[in-house]
């Protein structure tokens, strides 16, 4: 008799029901892997980019294993995730479900940090001067070099939203994540995308090949097929910041070499028009 699955809430129950309905020819692990990969590529390819065709081929490779009706189940699962994260963003939905399904033991012995611990860590590291830093520099960046499903970054985004903090992370915080495991990175990418977090996820070894960027603040990473940009990374505020950072790099490259200098401050009005919607000025993908 298989191990009982402890899930909480209607969303997790619905996902497990859909997931198990696809099992038979494939194991639960294989179906979960296909669900995560298909979902991540669906989000990324909506943005275009130079790696769209390669990712589309990867999508077709995984999708070809299933019938049209079975693929509809994957779409329903992603819809369940999106609706649940809209209802309650203060959770690590995919990470907790991954552990509840006991998939961590099946794949590389992974164990994701409980969300309650990540929430406590975010509260302790938030810092009273964060608003001052944003006011001075325009934005700040947070980085998790072993992101797993993204619990720590999700917790930080929610910490920004709490009463008394009230920072619009969609315009003021760049989220940078890295993990050596592709599946973990894709779970993080899906959740950061659905949370509306601007930034990118890099799938690589953070010890031997840590994330590097062209600019000193990590806004423009060295691009490659292992870099996955969230939809909010292309929001107008971040677009113009990248334009300004690129121009600053070009000016510095053309200037005579001298002592290292701090990057030029962003010009007034770099944030552009206020395109935010909803409470706290935050956009939603739904």
Q: Can I get a quick summary?
A:
The chain is of the alpha/beta class and 286 residues long. It is built from twelve helices and four strands, in the order H-H-H-H-H-H-H-H-E-H-H-E-H-E-E-H.
Strand share of the residues? 5-15%
Number of strands: 4
- Class from helix and strand fractions: alpha/beta
User: Could you give the order of strands across the largest sheet?
Assistant: 1-2-3-4
How do the helices and strands follow one another from N- to C-terminus?
A: HHHHHHHHEHHEHEEH
Helix fraction, binned, reads: 40-55%
**Cα-based radius of gyration, to the nearest Å:** 20 Å
Q: Supply the number of helical segments.
A: 12
Low-confidence stretches: 268-277, 279-286
Question: What gap, in angstroms, lies between the N and C termini?
Answer: 40 Å
Q: Report the mean per-residue pLDDT as an integer.
A: 88
Question: Tell me, what's the shape?
Answer: globular
Q: How many strands, which pairing sense, and closed or not: the largest β-sheet?
A: 4 strands, mixed
How many domains make up the coordinates? Answer: 2
Question: How would you describe the oligomerization state of the chains in this entry?
Answer: single chain
